[in-house]
Structures are given as C-alpha cells and as structure tokens.
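To make this tangible, we now present a fold written out as tokens:
***
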Amino acid sequence: MAAFPHSPNQTFRRLRGQHSPAEFAAMVRRAAKEIGQTVSCDARYIGRVESGEIRCPNYAYERVFLHMFPGRTLADLGFSPREAVRGRSAQRSAPFTHKESDVLRRAFMAGGSATVAAATIGVTLLGDTRRPPSRAGESEATAVEEAVRQIRLLDDRHGADALYRRAAEPLRAAYALLDAGATRQSTEDRLHAGAGELAISVGWLAHDSGRFEDARSHYAEALATARVAGDAGLEAHAFSNMAFLARDCGRPRESVRAAQAGRRAARSLGSPRLLSLLALREAGGWAGLADRKACEEALTRAHTEFSRGETGADPEWMSFFGEAELESLESRCWAALGEYARAARHARRAADLQDPHFARNVALYTAELADDLARADAPDEAAWAGGRVLDLLTEVQSTRIRSMLSGTARTLVPHQRSPRVADFLTRHATV
C-alpha cells in the first residue's frame, strides 16, 4: 500500500534560519568536506528533509548534521529514530482533515503514492480551487510557492507520468489567484513568480511524459507571465526549458535561439550557474545542427561559468544542476555529434555522481549510458546498464526514460546471442 505523506520537519526548518535552501545545502557540503565526508546535498534534498519525506538521514548525512550542530542528537534536529523509520509499514503521519482524507481515498483507488501526493497538493496548499479568495494574501502566495517545491520533490522521486494530470489542478488555482488580485504589490509579485514557476513545473511534467504540445503551451504561459511581471529570472527559466523542449522535438535551431534569449535575460542576475546551464542548452542545439565548432565553444563557456561556483543569486529551481547534470548534458551533445564512446564516458560520470535519492535522474543518466554504450558497440555493458534502469523503473514513471530504453533495446537486437543481452531483452519485453 502507498504511504501517507509525512509531517513537515519544522525543527530542521528553524535551524536553516534565514538561509535559502540552496545556501543551506552549500553549507552542508562545506561541513561535509571539513570531516572528509562526501554528500551531494542540494536545495531539493533540504526540501525533502523539511517536508518530512526524509524522516531519518543516511549515515553520511547524519555525521555531517551532527558536525554542523554539535551537542545535538538526530531527535534534536527533528528526525525520527532510525529503527522507527525501518519499520515504515507501521508508521502513519498526523491525521488529515475530512476533506483531505476524501481526496486521498479517491487517489488510492486510482494509483500509487506519487498520484496520492500530487492529488493532495491542490487541496492542502491552495484550498478549494473553485472558490478562490476575493483578494490573495501572503498565505496564498506561500501556498503557490510550496506547491512548486512539492511537485519538484515528487518528480525527483517518481518521474512525471503519475503527476502531470494532478499537478494541473494547483496551476489552475494559482492563475485564479492572480485573476483575483492581491492585497499588496509585493504579494502580487510573488504570485506572478510562483504561478510562472508552477507553469514551468507542470510544463516539465508534460515534457517528461511525452506530451510535447502541452509542455510548449505551459512554457509559453510561463514566459508570458514573466514578461508581464518584468521578471528576468522567470524569463530565463522559461527560455531554458523551451530550449530543452525544442531539442527534444527535433528543432535544434529553435533550441539555440531560445537558449541565447535566456542568456540575454540572465545577464543581469549574477548567477554563473544559470549562464552555464543556458550555455549547455545552446550547445545541445548546435550539436543537433551538427555544428561541432559552435557546440565546443558553448561547452567551453558552460564549463567556465560552472567553475565559478555557486552564488546566493542562483535560482532555487536550479538545485538540480550540479556536476552530474553538467556531465549528462555534455554527454547528449557528443551523442548528437555521433561520438558515442565519448558520450558514454560523460554519461557514466553523471550516473556515478548523482545522489541516489534522486531516483528519476539516476534512471535517466543510466538510460543515457545504456544507449551510448549500445551505439558504441559495447552490447554487454549496454545490457548491464539497461538492466539497472529496469530496476529503477519499478519506482520511476517517465515516458522519456522508457522511450530511450526502447531505443536501446532495438539497437541491441542484433547482439541477442549474448546471454547478458538476451536477458535484458527478455526483461525489457516483459516490462
């Protein structure tokens, strides 16, 4: 049976203080280095802790947190005892309201835990979407922002397929709040930014589940919201995702132009990491156009900007963009240029570097690795990587990853005399 959502870890949230999730994640990584520990902490991990999804950290994070807060225990940090977490099937979170429980019952009838969690977003965070308040206040703006975080956390764990339809409900509510107007200008600015980010998040769920036209519409909605609000950060984010979508739709020149537009919007924001990501988006477009020189120039810019490190100006949504994602995006460039062995080296590094908590990205990078190895004439290694992806697909629902794996299977058919390849093809066929 799917698990009920967990209670938020308010204690850990208080310990974060005035730092943003990204800033606090950087503090965790620095503390880890001080004690010779390696953790891939980012803002999404902090969000998962604060939401209660991570009820007890693994041993590596435990050592780091206890180093950061000397004299305190895990319980003092708001975590559950490890032995209690191991007995998860007997655990239940705090009681829900009657209204929340009714939504959960209907969701349980329809599907798994990802669907359940997504179903509660519109009710628990945004209230009754049919009766928005006459004027939106701070609590409504906060609810929209929290809906964005929750959707991203769920996507990290489960992929997009089970979330997309449900996630559209809080998006409609967010734009209803915008139409209602706000009690003050600062609240309206937050609502515009939150609604735009929510449109991008829902667009990404459509994108990852193969609904490209829906994704294009949501990204365009976010871009329009950014332009109305004069929000350069939201505009850069929208263009980044539009560039990614154009690449996946086979429109590389449009991908280049969108990435360049994003770079223009991002110039004044003071975030080298954002400029790095946009350079990688541009590189992917140039690779699709088979322009190796322009692709390499964009990759060089991406690495130069990335090497400048994180800053307080990095947007919260960029928490996914670490070294693993950089390696993955570079891998896609070399694959598009036909250099599959080189692409496989980058894809392998991406999979190795990715925090295992983010199951969707681990599955994606490993699927990229499998496809690159198959095309680089390394069928047994490709079959091994493909098998790892099949294991992860019991937890992750992503049409994009499944489509990628199907392509790998077709490439491996001529090698089915190999026992390892035959085993992978049989498993893939049953899935």
Observations:
- Confidence is low (pLDDT under 50) at residues 86-130.
- DSSP finds 21 helices and no strands in the chain.
- Residues 244 and 281 are 6 Å apart (CA to CA).
